[in-house]
Amino acid sequence: MTHTPISRTLLTRVHISHRQTLLPLLLLLTGMLLVLLLFMLMPPPLWLQGQANYLPLHMLLETLAIVAAACIFAVSWATHKRLGTHNLLILACGFLVVALLDFSHMLSYQGMPDFVTPADPEKAIAFWLAARAVAALSLLWVAFASWQTLSQRHWRWTLLSLGLLLTMAVHGLILGLPQHLPALFIQGQGLTPLKVGMEYALIGIHILTAWRLWQLMRLAQKFNASALFAASLAMAMGGFCFTLYASVTDHFNLLGHVFKVIAYGLLFRGIFIEGVDKPFNELAQSRAKLQATFDAIPDMLFELDQQQRVVNFHPAADSRLQLSPESLLGKTPAALLPAQALHVSKLALEQASKAGFAQSPPFVWQGEKRRLWLQLSAAARMINGRTDGHVVLVRDVTELKAQEERIIQLAHFDSLTGLPNRTLFEERVNLSIHLAQRQNSSLAILFIDLDHFKHINDTLGHTAGDALLCAVAERLGNNLRDEDTLSRQGGDEFVLALPGADAAGAAHVAQRLLDSMAQPIQFADNTTTITASIGIAIYPMDGVALGNLMQHADAAMYQAKALGRNEMHFFTSNLQERMSRSLTLENALRGAIERNELSLHYQPQWLLPEQRLVGFEALLRWQHPELGTISPSEFIPIAESSGQIIQLGEWVIATGLQQLASWQQDGHSDLRLAINISAVQFRRMELVVRLAAALHAHQLQPGCLELELTEGVAMENPVHASQQLKVLHDLGVRLAIDDFGTGFSSLAQLRHFPVDTLKIDRSFIEYVDTDNSSLEMLRSIIQLAHNLSVDTLAEGVETPSQLKVLSELGCGQIQGFIWGKPQPADACTRYLQQMA
Ligand SMILES: Nc1nc2c(ncn2[C@@H]2O[C@H](COP(=O)(O)O[C@H]3[C@@H](O)[C@H](n4cnc5c(=O)[nH]c(N)nc54)O[C@@H]3COP(=O)(O)O)[C@@H](O)[C@H]2O)c(=O)[nH]1
């Protein structure tokens, strides 16, 4: 729409919410003003002068005005309650009076038949002025009064009665007492000054009303202020026309009537838009919104009436439960739902009626093709505090239910084997312990660990390893009763609970399991024989709490492993003692460095052919004030499992290198030091950095340090080991494989490690002079080392005959009591001084 400069300026002065409606009204008012000016400036066209047919035209215009006024009454009366304002009531009653007075005005018009008294302009003008006054005052009222909420209901009837009484009084006065009315029109002369003055007064009221409405339009309003504003101005213009006419049939009179019709039309339109059109539009919009909301809800929606009959149904687009509205409308839940679901729905509807909203638990619906889980959400539709019906959402929760079951499965069962996991196992066994306690019976816990399972994983891969675990789980399960609980705790560890089993029963089951495991087992296109080690603890003898029993069964399992694997072992008091000793040592070891309880002993290492000392092996010693001397064979594994080995290992490196530096400074510059590195230390990436820093701190060549790693350390994770060994080799330190021959070294793999020395385990040396197979083994190892260009060092050499054999086999170095036991540093220093 194009804006003229004036309208643009005017529009900027009103609140944005009025601009759109105000603009066409301003244009209309401008048009009306132009027509009025035109009428005033130009002589009337011939067809308008002294119209012979003015009466029907007047009747037509008045009828239109009366209809518009009646419509204003009807719409305002009907909507004032909903819009909540008494101003509409004033307008309604005011325009009812206006309609009635205008009707009498029309009947009194010159040329009309008698209406109680003969028709004449004076009478018509009196009704006319009365109607105009009521219209002007009604509008003035609503412009100045606040559009507040109605409080008293009886007001509407009081106001209506007052309006009708006023109408009757005006009629009584005009029709019954005309002689008391002042002259308003003089035939042949035109309007009296009183009539013109009254018209001007009415015009003043309209302009005041319009001014007030204009002020109100600076803010957003609850009513259509622009329509009221335009109607007031149109009425003012109409009123002006009635100050100008000389004859009741002249063109100003006609224009005044037309403007009056326009003014009423504008008023009606404004009230209609606000009271009917706008709410209908809003209703249509909210319906569309509601429909869109329904379409977006993935649930079926039912509307039930008071008798719980389906009166409306909205299907869910993507539901697997497709129902046709025809099959549902008019039916009650009783006719639609199976018995169990009916009960659930009844409870939900009852609850919703009481609390406003309710949700049912999921229930099963047997559809034509499949079984579904459904859930109801019901809300009560309340009218005047009474339940008028319900809205029920039916949600297909089949997927959710399946997920819930999957979560329960995952939370309680091992995902690989499907066996109960630790959580479920604990739940069940705690219950069994409780029962055993009440029934004074026993219960056995079996800790089952597969022997050398890691080897399968390393050689055949993890997928094959997983398949084997599943096959083992199945085989173990096949040998158990229903009441037994077999669980997988992780890795290759299984724990079995045998409710009611005593030691004999547990041993019987354990043996059956070991026997069954001895049979070749098929998994992922492989067949193998795998053994297991089983540790057994019995309730209440070995513990009354599950944690205790598990710990003891675990300890017993380790004992079974130590006995050579493929064994069962019961928890014993001896094991108990070892566990408690281990705990004591773990605690005592904390702070041992700070309390100066640790020291290093050094054992000489010799070049065999030259019988020359090449260096020492640093061996850790622990002297506890109360526990006495504790062997590293005992405390090193404890330090490893508790993590304390890191701190101890660093102390050994620092102390050992400091001692070596001191000896080298004393003139033994070629002297070497061997240090044992545990698996835990070896795995840490910082090892290299720490070593480099320690060597640098004591200004030692890396080549004078030899790290002793056991076979197991190197083979645990060959890929990582090979990387770490390469980094250490690049640093320049020497690398030795300790206890060689006791582990499961893949010789092929060993070839790829940058190893300098193979330290042959003492067990091969011990009987080398008496046992032929030991001799052959030793020969092969030395031969292999020669082939790989790796040095050999035999440890634990105690006798001259052992020395002789080693010498004949070409062993490079020896270490053993024969040529020197581990000694404290000062003893070694004295020895070195004597040698020099
Ligand atoms: N990670 C670390 N491990 C260490 C450290 N210090 C020692 N250890 C390891 O503890 C195990 C036991 O050591 P230990 O009791 O010191 O025994 C050593 C020697 O005393 C013993 N030995 C040496 N010669 C003979 C002999 O002729 N006969 C005989 N019966 N025993 C002898 O052998 C042990 C040395 O073994 P090894 O290290 O394999 O060369 C032992 O495994 C140590 O490694 C440490 O600081 N860190």
UniProtKB/TrEMBL annotation:
<feature type="domain" description="GGDEF">
    <location>
        <begin position="441"/>
        <end position="573"/>
    </location>
</feature>
<dbReference type="InterPro" id="IPR052155">
    <property type="entry name" value="Biofilm_reg_signaling"/>
</dbReference>
<keyword id="KW-1133">Transmembrane helix</keyword>
<feature type="domain" description="PAS">
    <location>
        <begin position="286"/>
        <end position="332"/>
    </location>
</feature>
<feature type="transmembrane region" description="Helical">
    <location>
        <begin position="125"/>
        <end position="145"/>
    </location>
</feature>
<dbReference type="InterPro" id="IPR001633">
    <property type="entry name" value="EAL_dom"/>
</dbReference>
<protein>
    <recommendedName>
        <fullName>cyclic-guanylate-specific phosphodiesterase</fullName>
        <ecNumber>3.1.4.52</ecNumber>
    </recommendedName>
</protein>
<dbReference type="GO" id="GO:0071111">
    <property type="term" value="F:cyclic-guanylate-specific phosphodiesterase activity"/>
</dbReference>
<dbReference type="Pfam" id="PF00990">
    <property type="entry name" value="GGDEF"/>
</dbReference>
<dbReference type="InterPro" id="IPR000160">
    <property type="entry name" value="GGDEF_dom"/>
</dbReference>
<feature type="transmembrane region" description="Helical">
    <location>
        <begin position="157"/>
        <end position="177"/>
    </location>
</feature>
<dbReference type="GO" id="GO:0071732">
    <property type="term" value="P:cellular response to nitric oxide"/>
</dbReference>
<feature type="transmembrane region" description="Helical">
    <location>
        <begin position="87"/>
        <end position="105"/>
    </location>
</feature>
<dbReference type="GO" id="GO:0016301">
    <property type="term" value="F:kinase activity"/>
</dbReference>
<keyword id="KW-0973">c-di-GMP</keyword>
<keyword id="KW-0808">Transferase</keyword>
<keyword id="KW-0812">Transmembrane</keyword>
<dbReference type="Pfam" id="PF17159">
    <property type="entry name" value="MASE3"/>
</dbReference>
<feature type="domain" description="EAL">
    <location>
        <begin position="582"/>
        <end position="836"/>
    </location>
</feature>
<dbReference type="GO" id="GO:0005886">
    <property type="term" value="C:plasma membrane"/>
</dbReference>
<feature type="transmembrane region" description="Helical">
    <location>
        <begin position="21"/>
        <end position="42"/>
    </location>
</feature>
<dbReference type="Pfam" id="PF08448">
    <property type="entry name" value="PAS_4"/>
</dbReference>
<dbReference type="InterPro" id="IPR035919">
    <property type="entry name" value="EAL_sf"/>
</dbReference>
<feature type="transmembrane region" description="Helical">
    <location>
        <begin position="197"/>
        <end position="214"/>
    </location>
</feature>
<keyword id="KW-0418">Kinase</keyword>
<dbReference type="InterPro" id="IPR033425">
    <property type="entry name" value="MASE3"/>
</dbReference>
<dbReference type="InterPro" id="IPR035965">
    <property type="entry name" value="PAS-like_dom_sf"/>
</dbReference>
<feature type="transmembrane region" description="Helical">
    <location>
        <begin position="54"/>
        <end position="75"/>
    </location>
</feature>
<dbReference type="InterPro" id="IPR013656">
    <property type="entry name" value="PAS_4"/>
</dbReference>
<feature type="transmembrane region" description="Helical">
    <location>
        <begin position="226"/>
        <end position="248"/>
    </location>
</feature>
<dbReference type="Pfam" id="PF00563">
    <property type="entry name" value="EAL"/>
</dbReference>
<dbReference type="InterPro" id="IPR000014">
    <property type="entry name" value="PAS"/>
</dbReference>
<keyword id="KW-0472">Membrane</keyword>
<dbReference type="InterPro" id="IPR043128">
    <property type="entry name" value="Rev_trsase/Diguanyl_cyclase"/>
</dbReference>
<dbReference type="InterPro" id="IPR029787">
    <property type="entry name" value="Nucleotide_cyclase"/>
</dbReference>
